[in-house]
Amino acid sequence: MEMDLNAQVKKACFLQRLKDFPSKLKDGVTKHIKHVQKFGKDDPRRIIHSIKVGLSLTLVSMLYYVRPLYNSFGVSGMWAILTVVVVSEFTVGGTLSKGLNRAFATLIAGALGVGAVHLARLCGHKGEPIVLGILVFSLGAAATFSRFFPRIKQRYDYGALIFILTFSMVAVSGYRTDEILVIAYQRLSTILIGGTICILVSIFVFPVWAGEDLHKMVANNIIKLANSLEGFEGEYFPSSEKTSKGTNSSVREYKSILTSKSTEDTLANLARWEPGHGRFRLRHPWTKYLKIAGLVRQCAIHFEVLNGCVLSDAKAPQDFISKIQEPCSIISREAGEALKAIAKSIKTMSRYHVCVNTHIKNSKNAIENLRLALKVSFPETDKDLLEIIPVVTMASTLIDIVSYVEKISESVDEFSVLAHFKENLDPKLSPELGQHHLLHKGTVKPVLEGDNEEECNNSPHVVIAVHDEQPPTVNENNVNLGAEKTTVVVV
Amino acid sequence: MEMDLNAQVKKACFLQRLKDFPSKLKDGVTKHIKHVQKFGKDDPRRIIHSIKVGLSLTLVSMLYYVRPLYNSFGVSGMWAILTVVVVSEFTVGGTLSKGLNRAFATLIAGALGVGAVHLARLCGHKGEPIVLGILVFSLGAAATFSRFFPRIKQRYDYGALIFILTFSMVAVSGYRTDEILVIAYQRLSTILIGGTICILVSIFVFPVWAGEDLHKMVANNIIKLANSLEGFEGEYFPSSEKTSKGTNSSVREYKSILTSKSTEDTLANLARWEPGHGRFRLRHPWTKYLKIAGLVRQCAIHFEVLNGCVLSDAKAPQDFISKIQEPCSIISREAGEALKAIAKSIKTMSRYHVCVNTHIKNSKNAIENLRLALKVSFPETDKDLLEIIPVVTMASTLIDIVSYVEKISESVDEFSVLAHFKENLDPKLSPELGQHHLLHKGTVKPVLEGDNEEECNNSPHVVIAVHDEQPPTVNENNVNLGAEKTTVVVV
């Protein structure tokens, strides 16, 4: 009786599950589809790349579908398919690097392979496989060893692989066929066809340039530092006037910079294979980005300490914090502004060094104020002295960060010369920019304050500014009065 | 006349250069050879790997050299050569991952390809290339898109590539040949032969296990932290008694840890493909290494700040430094010892938690002493207060480092349970270990102090220890008195 009941319950359960299955399957499938859609939307270039690969494959299939082409290449056409699949990389640099490596390695290894077969034939029928075996073993081992050298690994790893592959294949198959030159020629020509299709599709159909990605990545990392600094100010001094709720989540934006080295290295390596494109010339100083990125990462390391101060439970007495709050806020805000200006300078490839230097000077002045504030507000009782240690650490880390911002600015300055950045003046620094002098007979529309920046970037006018050399003064409302004697000439 | 002289000078120069050429060439060649030799000696496994690849290539060439084998496989033997070249990776995990990916992807794509050809043939001679083209385009694009998903990219990237390759090749060549099943079978069988040769050579001829490399790397990174701490003590307090000249170079050993993430990720990923080997079981918790490595890197980030303090010009007054020197020295020494014990625990796969905990407790006690020292020795004049900021930063960073050492110790403890570390007692902590209690009738040879450690690790004896729960006391000579009531039972 009990077993019967048990069986009935089991059956009901099974039926219920069977009933639920379609809806569960539907839920699962829609969830997956949504996930895939979101993934594609996050970076639509992924979808475009997939379509590009499909396109290249369809193009190269013509070697089989079109009778005259099939007649001249025959089954060797599969090398073209193989090449297309293997060489199609996401970035133009990746495709060029693999394509050129493959082409040259096949050429060299094919020639050597043909030579090896001719050499081996001199040794008679019995000696031939032995000589070929020794040659394949030694060249294969030597080329494999060469792949460990960092310089070869970085740029020619794929070439070395294809060298071993082609040499072995030509040398070994040479033992069984007399048409070795035909094989080598067909292999080389189909690889060239496949490689050319890939490279053309990669460059001319929605190209993804590794160099541009690197350029944007470095600029965005600097912006992340700036956002983290802003977020830090809001989180460490919650009473700060400028705090908005949005900034708090940004305080940990710097985290991704700590582990971005390998991506940057790869991009810089691929960018060197790319021809000039957009704003980048052929010999753009790609390796200099790595220097800047290294400094940015060093700076992000100090943010990690700053973040530790934010998360720490041991907070100093509120009155002490409030005494140093103002200089600390100014330091982080000005350093953040300097970082933003540096990032903008990289993004627009124009020099904003006046603006950057002013912000750095402002933050340095604030450091002096901070020192002063620390001097007068050191607590007197023993207990308090220990409590303020985390605050002192925070302050000293902020000072370190400013010195890194300066280093980043210097290295971007150096870079801007090499990369031929265009000279530019930040209109924010020249309050008189609104009142243009009329120097020619046409009517010049007065530029409104809010429009200054766009106007200045886009107009072909030459803007000359003269700045006084005195350090900028920082007043309580944190208005930059650094460029007081600016005169503007619009030609 | 002058031209004549000029020509004579040029000729003399040219002759001189011609004369120097052999010796210069010789110098250059010997320099290169020495460089290559040194590179091979640095990690002899590189040479062994190169020889292994040569060996696999020679073995697979037999498909051509041996008449019966050539008769059955024909020119398809080249797929075996191709497989050997592409699948031979440095580590066993790499070879297995590529080999299995290649085999399964070929199997699935081959079956789908044959199906696609049969489907296309239903649409008549004109419709066939169109249907095939659409299938190749859509499956190629979909598989390419799937390679962007992190989970697929991490483990099945090569499989997806081979899937596209095989499917396109089988589907497209199916248009021109009726022997498509023969082609698919030959391709699959030769790939299996090539892959099997690679995997066997990789596992049985001087194997390089990614798992073991990861294991050693994590342990060595912890040792690097310990060395940097020791070096820091010597460099920051040059008058310290324990300073030897050798330690100073070690202070920046931690630097390599900051950028080791990608190597660790790769090794952990490959290790999961490896079968059980040596001390590691099949389901060894490889991903847990990444957690430990993450904490080690977090700790290394604080070393960067410490290093900044060492390099900083702004040194505090000597009398202030000398007041906090002792607790700081003890903190760094004890934290260093704790790190060394943790690294030893990982290396030997035995638990040394008593030893580690004692050192951590000691360093925590020293932190209390440091706080006390800071309390009594805060300078009174205003100027000095600012001067000591870098020292306070240093001290607070040291305190942070101790908390990270504790976190690392906890995470290694967790890991040791999952990885079945054997229980072990550090003989240094148990002074009574020399006097074993005789519990059975055989003679137990008294263990000498110096031999304890080895004896303890190798003997099959069960060691049971009872510790008192009081925190260890730290006396001036820094002797650990943590485990005072230890009783040892040898069964």
UniProtKB/TrEMBL annotation, chains A, B:
Residues passing through the membrane, by range: 72-92, 104-124, 130-149, 156-176, 188-210
InterPro entries membership: ALMT
Family, as annotated: Belongs to the aromatic acid exporter (TC 2.A.85) family.
Protein name per UniProt: (rape) hypothetical protein
GO CC, alphabetical: membrane
GO biological process: malate transport; monoatomic ion transmembrane transport
Keyword Electron transport: no
Entry keyword set: Ion channel, Ion transport, Membrane, Transmembrane, Transmembrane helix, Transport
Species, as recorded: Brassica napus (Rape)
